[in-house]
Amino acid sequence: MDPDHRKILQSNFVKLSELISLDEIVPLLLEERVFTEHMMEDILAENTDTDRKHKLMLDLPRRGPNAFKTFLDILLKTGNYDAAMILDPDIEIPNSDIISSEHVSLLTSSFRHVSIMPVNEGTAQHFVKPATEWKEGPDCYKMSSQPRGYCLIINNVLFQNILSERYGSYEDARKLDIVFHEFGYEVTFLSDRTAQEILGLVKEFSEKQEHNQVDSCVVIILSHGNYNTIYGSDVEKVQLDTILNFFNNDNCPQLHGKPKMFFIQACQGDNHDRGVSGCYEADSKPFIQHRTRTAPQPIVPAFSLQAWSDMLISHSTLPV
Q1: Tens of pLDDT along 204-221?
Q2: How many CA atoms lie within 13 A of 272 on its CB side?
Q3: Residue 140 is among the residues annotated as catalytic for this protein
């Protein structure tokens, strides 16, 4: 598949999944041999309609050089014009080339053992169990806004030249998208961004004035990386400290006092953590102690607690 076409599908798979109807497009995808019947059975075996659509959209970029155009033609034939215009904003919408419901029924009957089951949303599997009570108090963050917060997911899978593709990351990113939607977040999902694009997108996200009206924010980045760095799709480096700095209390006052969560799925290098003798319990950043000859000076933190607070940072560690 053309790399530009692949990127369009991967960057928009969540929105496309919301717009398409499996009942309409599955028979045509089978008729045009975009998917085999066995492949379609695997797709339709997913637990929910959303999962089925996500899997179909994630598998589509690997279905050959003609899959994009065939899929676009199918969207036009079935009247899925909003989805078609995501693939090609300049597409000319036909007036009379809409496939009839009778033809869809006929095609469906040709693949009788491929079951397109309606989903009972009341029994659909969910990742998040709704809370039955709110906990409030001085030791709890307020988490009752609607939405609960904004979540940015950047999933880099395809890289220029040197680095290998990260196809397994599609499934991780898809489930993270679902989980944080179910947590009550408004999620922005993006794929395959360069280093400069990542910096620009994260900075713009940190400056959202809408953060004033919500109780938290989440940033998730899945990519190749090294110690304290993340690679863009152009194999240029982004410093993790630069990303975190966008959200300190000086640069992001609209999230002051609110939890800011960062999940970084990126390799942290090839060195092994060989451990140290003894043990200690601190998990905070190190303190720097300044001394003079005449009298000990107070311990000064390496960063100001007034500028850095309310952050949870989760990322890969060095291999053991």
Answers
A1: 999 999 999 999 999 999
A2: 2
A3: no
Active site residue 224: yes
Active-site residue, from 267, 272, 279, 290? 267
306 class by beta-carbon count within 10 Å (0-12 exposed, 13-18 middle, 19+ buried): exposed
End-to-end CA distance of the chain: 39
Residue 98, C-beta contacts closer than 8 angstroms, at least 6 positions apart: 77, 78, 79
Residues of the chain with pLDDT under 70: 94-127, 268-306, 317-320
Measure Cα distances from 157 to 8, 173, 179 in Å: 13, 10, 20
In this prediction the pTM is 0.59
Residue of 224, 256, 279, 315 marked active site: 224
Token code pair at residue 88: 């090609």
In angstroms, rounded to a whole number, what is the distance separating the alpha carbons of residues 1 and 15?
Answer: 20
Using DSSP's 3-state secondary structure scheme, residue 266 falls into coil
Where do runs of H (alpha helix) occur along the chain?
3-11, 13-19, 22-31, 37-44, 49-59, 67-77, 81-87, 101-110, 169-182, 195-206, 240-245
| CA 21 to the chain's CA centroid | 22
